[in-house]
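Let us practice reading a record.
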Amino acid sequence: MKFWGAAALIASLIPPCVCAKTDFPPDKTSIIPSSPPTIIPGFAPIPDAARQAVPAKTISQIPSSAPTIDPSWQSRDKQKKRVHDFFRLFGWIRRNATIHEPQMPSAIRKIQRVLRVPETGEYNERMERVMSRPRCGTEAAYNESEATIPDGGNRKRFVLWGPKWNRNPITYRFINYTNDLPENDQRSLISNAFAQWTQYLPLKISPTPTNNARADIHIRFVPLGPSEPAYAYTNMIADGTSLSSGLINITFNDDYAWDDTRLFNFTAVHEIGHALGLSHSKVEDAIMWPYYEGLIRPMNPDDIAAVHSLYGWRDPRWSMIDNKISGSKFLIEVSTPFSDQSLTPPSPLDGLYQMRSSGQVLSYNPTSKSWTTIDSNKDTVQIAGAAGSVFQRHSDGSVFRYTGSGQSWTYIGPASDNVLDIVASAGDQVYQRRKDGWIARWTGSGSSWTTIEQPRNSRQIAVTDSRILWNLLSNGDLVRSQWPHNVGWTIVDINSLNLAIAVGGNEFYKLQSDNIVVWLDSVLYYWKVIDDEGDVVSIYAVGIFLYARRKDGSVWRYTGTPGVWEMLDDKRESEVVIGDRRGGVWEMVGGGDVLRLVS
């Protein structure tokens, strides 16, 4: 893992304009600032579609939506307690130390930087909503560098406890169980929680035999009081650089209702992270973020990078799933957004697809580790897919949609030499980029398409989960159109350096011609350089994940912290990298070999 500094992209704040004309002003200034400004009035933050929503029918003491805040949150004493609790969770304050009133604004600003809200130094409702949630009770040891240096810049978000396990395999056992769930269910939940971590690690973790009272990690349920906000804590005891076998206890607060399997699942995965040697993360979407809001979180790149930094990778790291003899030309991955999976299961068409130079289209079965031909047509020149839908474009511009059965495809778009390429997005949407400067969107019925006026000379389009249509023009200008694309275009950036764009969920990234990668903070609404090494040649985003391929062919995954990336592969012949929303990664190397990231 490398740590890189991140410099801000110079820009000035200009009021965005909604525009239907075809040419933009020649001056190259950015519409979005490069540092956190005052929030633009009326700007609606883009929702985080990378998280999995909670089914509405689930009964839980943890609400699935933001509750009304207790008016008592304005009590200064309560606010001070919240601030002290936050500082202890991250090791920013010595045990039994106190933050006095004159230092309170500075302490609040430090927390606001982590929460990505305006740094006013005044405790507000956003802080209360986060810091009043059930939280982990594991307090980090005092970390002077984290405590004394203002958070931000090029510092990593995850924090390592220091010691790790120096043995393999590792064992665990239950000391007792809660009465809220059947014991078999608890054993299954804990086993699955350990698997969330071991899928990335060269470690084997298993329960001890029932007649064996010795184990490395113990799990127990103890009443801590109904008013105690901590749902669990982990004793992290070490002997030098190694965690101490038999002295690592995961304690669940038995005054919580553990029949809420969402809370049980989140708590187990989080506390096991502590038992493996991780402290709390400052990434709100990470498993190791200490507060729980009632959502099922996927493993975050920050969590993955943290455990890899402790234990390394599983071996082998990559596995070949197709060889260059096949002549792979195009590789795509189709996956359903997590927000959809809470209501319906993933689509049977989710998965990995490739198009070979002969026009043959194949889907990959990870269980049988085999490829199945779903079409063989020499006229096929492109495949695209998203959210359970797969499409192909022929050389004459016609478009077809896969039915999911054998080699059956449905004709949905007429032949036209005006079609440049197609882009698929969530919600069964597919768009055409056209030579005449217009974009066409399939209506979802028959072969009917709706045209969307656009500025001339489009270089690339991309569509978010919430169906925001981004358009990169050949002169570098960036414009976007809100669904249903009938009110013109908003100018977002006027910058001749813009070279390529990528969207993951609702996050937006751009690659500049100087090989710098920039992210749009859609909460504070400003540009942020997240890689300034100057050697990135392509980017790919999906869900919460962002990948970069560098000039030397190496493949890297963004951890969520500007300047901090984790190297996945160092092959010089790497040509394409793609991934799914669960963290699966595939790459195509020179000649057509297709490899899967095993760890």
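A brief commentary: The radius of gyration is 25 Å.
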